[in-house]
Amino acid sequence: MLESLVVNQLYSNEEIFRSLRVSNAGGIRPLTENGDVTRAAIMTSVPGLHVVGENPYHDRMEGGILTYTAAGRMGEQTLSGMNIRITDQKQRNFPIHGFALVANRRDKSVGPQRWKYLGLLEYLRHYSDSQLDATGKVRKVWLFEFRIHQDPPRVPIAHDAIVAFEVLTASRRVSGEVPDDDEIVNVTENESADEVERVEGIRRQLLEMDPKRFEFFVKDLLVHCGFNDVCVTKYSADGGVDVNARTGARLWVFEPTLVQVQAKRWLHSVGRKEVAELRGSLQPFARGTVLTTSHFSKAAINEANEAGKNPIGLVDGTRLGRVILDERFPI
């Protein structure tokens, strides 16, 4: 039996379920006592371990955020059972331990210790999305977003509830409560199943791109759509402008307005913070746009359109996929 869990250390499935007293299978493993969840383990995997057909939008860790697809690989997912129990952490502050599979189960060259401990997870939000299942058919899924906490680097299992309470309380105090940042706006237009599948297929390809390659893809798309003087800025992780462009003849009323784009090849949602950061990075009189493969929170949309501030354009993954289709732009 393990006494502690150490961040980035490898453990076997047996060590995990016996020490945490959770089930030995499944992606979401809650421990319940008297009907309440008192501890949970989230089991995910690093990209590349599963073929696309097994998990079309595999779970992703980016920027300290784990985006996790709820239980149920085939068919429409429902927000019930194990899926909904995770959201109770907002009120009950129980510990959620994150583990990532680092080697395929079929790889016999790797021993039983193939689960890397990510640290304590903080549930942030959940929302519905569309994905392609293992057969390529579009379906409704639920995505959960967790903040990954790797401090403290060692979590004593006997006292994980106390540690989790301290970590969650401190994190919420630092980040603050942003109204409507937990509500994700996912606009779905009246389209046929075939059209939705094509858009989701494009999103899947975009999500598989390297972030820097995605910036150059956006550059090429803007050129294709008639923008002039399009260039990718020097790569940095400061959350600022990624692509500069000027409107062309298609937008002759605004020609040649400087447009500055922040391109986020994200699976997790874009919140108010990212919109405000872009506005602060804009050159005088420039128009800004956040373009993402994911979705925007309601707070991000409110921030983008707040009265008295320079408006920010927002293009989510669904809209981007439709533009690529309409413009017949190859990926």
Overall shape: it is: globular
How is the main sheet built?
8 strands, mixed
Task: Count up the helices.
Answer: 9
User: Can you tell me the number of structural domains?
Assistant: 2
CATH topology of the largest domain: PUA domain-like
- Assembly of the depicted chains: single chain
CATH class of the largest domain: Mainly Beta
Structure summarized in a few sentences:
This protein is α+β, with helices and mostly antiparallel strands.
Write the SSE topology.
Elements: E1 4-6, E2 10-12, H1 13-20, E3 28-33, E4 36-45, E5 60-62, E6 65-69, H2 82-85, H3 89-92, E7 96-101, E8 113-132, E9 138-149, E10 154-156, H4 160-175, E11 184-185, H5 193-207, H6 211-224, E12 228-232, E13 243-246, E14 258-264, H7 272-281, E15 287-292, E16 296-297, H8 298-304, E17 312-315, H9 317-326
Helix pairs in contact: 5-9, 7-8
